[in-house]
Design a protein that fits this description.
- The protein is an alpha/beta fold.
- It folds into 2 domains: about 110 residues, Trefoil (Acidic Fibroblast Growth Factor, subunit A), CATH 2.80.10; about 270 residues, TIM Barrel, CATH 3.20.20.190.
- The protein contains 11 helices and 24 strands.
- The longest helix is centred in the middle third of the chain and has 14 residues.
- The chain is elongated, with a radius of gyration of 23 Å.
- It starts with 14 loop residues before the first strand and ends with a strand.
Length: about 400
Amino acid sequence: MRHLPAIAAALLLPLVPVATATPAQAAPSGTFYVTGVRTGLNVAQSGTGLALHRPKGNEDHQQWRLADGRFENTDSPGQCITRQLTMAPCAQADTVHELRQSGDQWEVFALGGETRWYLTPTTGSTSPMPADPRLDQMTFLTAHNAYANGVDGGFAPPFVNLAKNQTRGIVQQLGDGVRGFMLDVHQTPDGAILCHNSCTLVSRPVALNVDLQRIVDFLRANRSEIVTVFLEDYVDAATLRAELRKVAGLDEVLNRAEGVRENGWPTRSRVLASNKRLLIFTDHGKDGREDSGVLYQKDWTVENYWSMGPGVGTSDWSCYSRWDDKPLTATDRFQPLFVMNHFRDVPFTGTATTDNGKLLNRAQQFCQPAARKKPNFLAVDLYHLGNAAAAVNQLNTYVYGP
């Protein structure tokens, strides 16, 4: 289960107009999200003014039609942003802005401490998936709390019987096409055990090395497959190292992301040729555990906030980073892998079925433009309900570019 990040207390910050300097290149035209480079928040119309809000697709007045330097809100035809950052009829002269471009960023105005913006088309361009895609172009079905399945292990009773995150064991998950596994690992006198919060009352507790061995055995038997493990990690570095040493054949398949910072993510064929087909990420801060081959997740990925809301009722489909200091739009010399969480606080069957049926829509209409990249991992509860695999298959037909 993911934990609530520290979120800024106020999203509506003081509006500070800034005078434009030299005339810009020809301003782009089309319908865009205007996204802050620093925070990843979107400009939204708020009454007669503007605010920075969490990306929310075509909801919340966040889409802007741009033509001739004017930003017209698509929900308020004829109303544009003035240079004083109010909303006024587009016919007014002060609704014309001079846009200055710097790479893929733009300087237009200053709002809420943001001065640089991404102009992300609401409908990004796509091209067919290449025959040999890079890892950052691929999408993988991912099981949230994959260990809490009532077959291999689970939460403490009675929750394992009432609200399992999954209902199929790790081996069947692999057979069903799951290629990403989110595992919570806790320290006990017995070592690194898979459980949530407390391992005291877990029925059939499973050690981390047991599930990792299942995954490694699958990879050794299926040479064309790639698997990723995400550890929510509450053990010390020595315990994790000892646990990994118990997994026979791990070193043969463990991918340490060598050369990725310099050259970007490798293609699928290069990964298969190297046989380094297992990535293990940890959310634990750097303390030497990386020496064992696990990767500090925040260095290599971006990830949206984990919860869409309680187990029943309406959901929050906004798509924003779980880390305040690393927006979904963050990039480097390599493209961070995008982990898209799509689940509620409690995994009720009916709700998960409905939510998983809407997975593709949220990925394409909400999270893809919010991150300016295609999700690489679609993390869901009860993956076999709602046809989450169909969303993965569709995303694997194209490459996206903002």
